Amino acid sequence: MKIISIANRKGGVGKTTTAINVATALSAIEKKVLVMDFDPQGNATTSLGIAKEKGKPSTYEVLIGINQPKSAIVPTNLPYFDLMPSSPDLAAAEIELINVPKREYRLKSALESVASNYDYVIVDCPPSLNLISINALTAATDVIVPLQCEFLALEGLADLMKNINAVKRNFNPQLKLLGIILTMFSRQNNLSKMIEVDVRKYFGDKVFDTVIPRNVRVAEAPSHGKPVLIYDFKSSGAQAYINLAKEILKREKDI
Predict the structure, then answer these.
(1) Which of 25, 33, 195, 200 has the fewest CB atoms within 10 Å distance of its CB?
(2) How many of the other CB atoms lie within 10 Å of CB of 45?
(3) 3-state DSSP call for residue 197?
(4) Is residue 25 within 8 Å of residue 242, measured between CB atoms?
């Protein structure tokens, strides 16, 4: 089983969109996939058309140890694709776990009970580096960093890489950067092109060849409770995510 955390300390860079659409593409080739909504805002849950029901087990209960992962997993409308929904209560987990021994390994331990059921677990991380994100990175085999093609997003990338390396050094020596994916890319925008050049120059082959274009169908899809691959398969955004999934499979094979 591969556990891929989708991480960036900045919000609005395409973490959730990347998580659910890569998962959709992988499930389409009959890979068993679990998406964990590890953001208290619950955007992955909403984007898949699944209601956030109070009192139902979620990633919060799994992280603090009230429920086993199996009880929190719900099927989506897609075969081979399950979801562990989020809850606003997840925001309190950091405080509740402050005095718990090995609190950084809570998710890693919890996932051991479902490891044999999936080919991929994809964790949609919150837009911050806190105990929740550290748990996601400590449990992960790989991390993918979505990078919005804007100056401020680029500015924080170096700090994010330091954070990932710190988690690798202190908690998870096996953690690998699977790649950086450029999102919201506009070929008509000189800034997008400049950022692409800079990121590829600095990170080399760690940057995926695929770029995710700024596309209205990608933006519309969550309001319909569907991944863009289902909402509009022929759109440029959907096709880009299919190509990204192909690259992920190829990189894993090469590794």
Answers:
(1) 200
(2) 27
(3) helix
(4) yes
Query: Rounded to the nearest 10 degrees, what angle do helices 236-254 and 15-28 cross at?
Result: 70
Read off the tokens for 71: 């009880």
**Which tokens in the block code for residue 13?**
């860079």
Strands (E), 76-119: 81-84
| Contact partners, residue 30, CB within 8 Å, separation at least 6 | 79, 80
Q: Give me the phi and psi of 118, to 5 degrees please.
A: -135, 150
pLDDT at 106: 96
Whole-angstrom CA distances from 194 to 101, 150, 185 are 45, 10, 11
Beta bridge partners of 177: 143
Give the integer Cα–Cα distance in Å for 109 and 139: 8
Q: Report pLDDT digits (tens) over 156-185.
A: 888 899 999 999 999 999 999 999 999 998
CA distance 16 to 18: 5
Report d(CA 75, CA 120) in Å as an integer.
Answer: 15
What integer is the mean pLDDT of 83-89?
Answer: 95
Give the H/E segment covering residue 134. helix 131-139
Per the CB < 8 A criterion, the answer to whether 107 and 138 are in contact is: yes
Task: Output the furthest CA–CA distance in the chain (Å, rounded).
Answer: 51
Crossing angle for the helix pair 131-139 and 157-170, to the nearest 10 degrees = 60
Q: Are 119 and 3 in contact (CB under 8 A)?
A: no
What is the C-alpha separation between 76 and 90, in angstroms, rounded?
21
Question: Could you say which DSSP state residue 42 is in?
Answer: -
